Amino acid sequence: MNYAKIAIGVLLALSVSRLIPHPPNFTSLIALSFYIPAIFGIKFIPVVVLSFFLTDIIIGLHSTLLFTWGSVILIGFLGNKFKINFSFRVTGSLLGALVFFIVTNFGVWLTGSYGYTLSGLVNCYILAIPFFGYSLISTLIFSVAIETLIYFYTLRTKNYLN
Question: Are 65 and 105 in contact (CB under 8 A)?
Answer without folding.
Answer: no
